[in-house]
């Protein structure tokens, strides 16, 4: 059974693309289509979440309610001054290059949105 890492980097300028990635993650988990699904927010998607964009927040809450723990890039969050906002939402902040490389070496398929 497949394992999927969904990397969401699109922000408000490409909102539909980012929201499609979040929806895919939820559906994969809810329908037990894959063994595991992970989500990493990176760059513009982090800023969209922290900005309070209603669509992003709604979809993120559904993602969290589905039991999918998401992470985000701590370097970007710190440089943008949004770390506390993202932590308050329940995101795990970490240097994402490490988990991305680990997931790839563990055979996760990486999908980007």
The gist of it:
The protein has 113 residues and is of the alpha/beta class.
What do you see in this structure?
This protein has 113 residues and is α/β, with parallel strands linked by helices. It has a single domain (3-112), classed as DsrEFH-like (Hypothetical Protein Ychn, Chain: A, 3-Layer(aba) Sandwich). Helices cover 50% and strands 20% of the residues. It has helices at 15-30, 44-50, 54-65, 74-80, 83-88, 97-105; strands spanning 3-8, 36-41, 70-73, 92-94, 109-112. The chain has a 5-stranded parallel sheet, with helices on both faces. α1 links the parallel β1 (3-8) and β2 (36-41). α1 packs parallel to α3. It is globular. The two termini are 22 Å apart. 35% of the residues are buried.
């Amino acid at each position: 059974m497949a394992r999927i890492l969904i990397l969401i980097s699109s922000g408000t300028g490409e909102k539909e693309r980012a929201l499609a990635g979040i929806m895919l993650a939820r559906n994969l988990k809810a329908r037990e289509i894959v063994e595991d699904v992970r989500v990493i927010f990176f760059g513009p998607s982090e800023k969209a979440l922290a900005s309070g964009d209603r669509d992003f927040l709604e979809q993120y809450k559904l993602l969290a309610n589905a039991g999918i723990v998401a992470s985000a890039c701590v370097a970007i969050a710190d440089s943008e001054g949004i770390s506390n906002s993202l932590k308050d939402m329940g995101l795990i902040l970490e240097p994402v290059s490490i988990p991305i490389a680990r997931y790839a070496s563990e055979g996760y398929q990486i999908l980007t949105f």
